[in-house]
Design a protein that fits this description.
With 190 residues, this protein is mostly beta strands. The protein contains three helices and eleven strands; from the N terminus they run ββαβββββαββαββ. A six-stranded antiparallel β-sheet has the order 6-7-5-4-8-9. The protein has a three-stranded antiparallel β-sheet with strand order 3-10-11, covered by helices on one side. β1 and β2 form a beta hairpin. The longest helix has 11 residues. The chain starts with 7 loop residues before the first strand and ends in a 10-residue tail after the last strand.
Length: 190
């Protein structure tokens, strides 16, 4: 899974926030009304590949060695960070992933967000560890594509981390763009 670009460009004076209206190049399609807005879950990304193997998303900082078996997917030229997959059984999330797998035996090759009580402080308030399919549609009001600010207001009201727009929800490799509630200083003052 490639790193998802933020819909609006980061403020060069405060990289924690975005500049509303200054679209990141390549994300103009969102403001053109293309794609589908979905919930951004606050967990850790997992992948079930076509061979039936589970992987955990892993970021490797510049100068650090990747873990054994790691597969690089993307590199952020601005930060030098590399993004890829490590076998789930060697990740720090293996135990919670195994618990989530017990919820079902019907898993399709796709990417999922692992959420639950022991993941990232459980901001989604899940009562057990779960795997949520990325791109799952969770209604955002009448027209979240019309104004991203309205979608972020909905996300804040619902207690979500943010929104991910999928250009083609049936394709896990399609163009995506994201906004987090915390990207806006007026939404989450620091």
């Amino acid at each position: 899974m490639r790193k998802i670009p933020t819909l609006f460009q980061r403020d060069p004076d405060d990289r924690r926030h975005v500049i509303p209206g200054e679209v990141t190049p390549g994300c103009e399609w969102v403001l053109a009304g293309e794609g589908v807005a979905t919930r951004k879950w606050d967990g850790t990304c997992c992948l079930l590949d076509d061979a039936g193997a589970w992987w955990a998303r892993r970021e490797v900082k510049p100068g650090k060695n990747p873990p054994p078996g790691w597969r690089e997917v993307d590199r952020d030229e601005a930060t030098g960070k590399r993004v890829g997959w490590e076998p789930i059984e060697q990740s720090g999330f293996a135990r919670w992933h195994a618990e989530a797998l017990e919820q079902s035996s019907l898993w399709e090759p796709w990417t999922y967000e692992l959420i639950g009580p022991r993941i990232n402080g459980n901001p989604d308030r899940a009562s057990s560890h779960l795997l949520v399919a990325h791109g799952s549609l969770f209604g955002l009001g009448a027209d979240p594509l019309a104004l991203p600010a309205d979608a972020i207001a909905d996300a804040r009201r619902l207690g979500w981390e943010g929104i991910v727009w999928w250009r083609d929800p049936g394709d896990p490799d399609c163009d995506k763009a994201k906004l987090k509630v915390r990207d806006f200083p007026e939404v989450n003052p620091s």
